[in-house]
């Protein structure tokens, strides 16, 4: 019988490998990486996020499993910041520890493992996943960046720092389309077909291009000393995150398919969106890029183990 984890992960692995090969044969030069990253971050990502959020009716969603998911993610995020300090590198690592590849891997995996019931829970998570993690991540990045500038001799008042961080966190290619899309959804309107179709195509291009960019960046990276921190991010994401979520879920009495779905979501490898953040803030690019590839590979082993663990505890 074909493994659901293998079926979901192989396209991701192949796209990363394809990007790696394209760089090695000089089809994509190192000078083009920044421009392609801008295309993904400023064009493809907003299109996908706005279109996803434009149909989300907040009142129709069951957020109880999602709250516990973010509780576990929040513990890991805060713990990472405590261990590595309040700086942009720590924020990049914290996002790498908690941001899952829910769309490219999660949707096919959950569909194969738990069917429609699992997909409903996953889609609820997807509808707010970027808003919560990327939104909070943006605030932390902005505050950490302001703090670093202050220590480098460019101080500014606390009120001004907070105001600037909030402004930069909202007027931003990630939170802004999420917020606008969510507000649009509550009006009951629908996106006109002539606009919706191009946005759909742009959104569909995000996953493959972002994953190929991971491969391209790997090809031009001198990993060496970065392997250890990259493996650490991958292990926290694929092992600590799901174990902590299962513990939290068990303590709060969450059971059944919703619990199992969230556990698998927590066990997924780091999403390529984290790479986009490191590119934007110019910190930890190679480390996070390597962790995306490594966590994807590790998941070939850890996802089946998580599935077996869920069956063992009788979710």
TrEMBL record:
InterPro entries: Mem_transp_PIN-like, Na+/solute_symporter_sf
Gene3D superfamilies per the UniProt record, alphabetical: 1.20.1530.20
Keywords for the protein's UniProt record, in alphabetical order: Cell membrane, Membrane, Transmembrane, Transmembrane helix, Transport
Pfam families referenced in this protein's UniProt entry, alphabetically: Mem_trans
Transmembrane annotation, as ranges: 6-23, 35-54, 66-86, 98-116, 122-144, 165-185, 205-223, 243-268, 288-310
Compartments in which it is found: Cell membrane
Membrane topology: Multi-pass membrane protein
Superkingdom classification of source: Bacteria
Entry's family note: Belongs to the auxin efflux carrier (TC 2.A.69) family.
Protein name in the entry: AEC family transporter
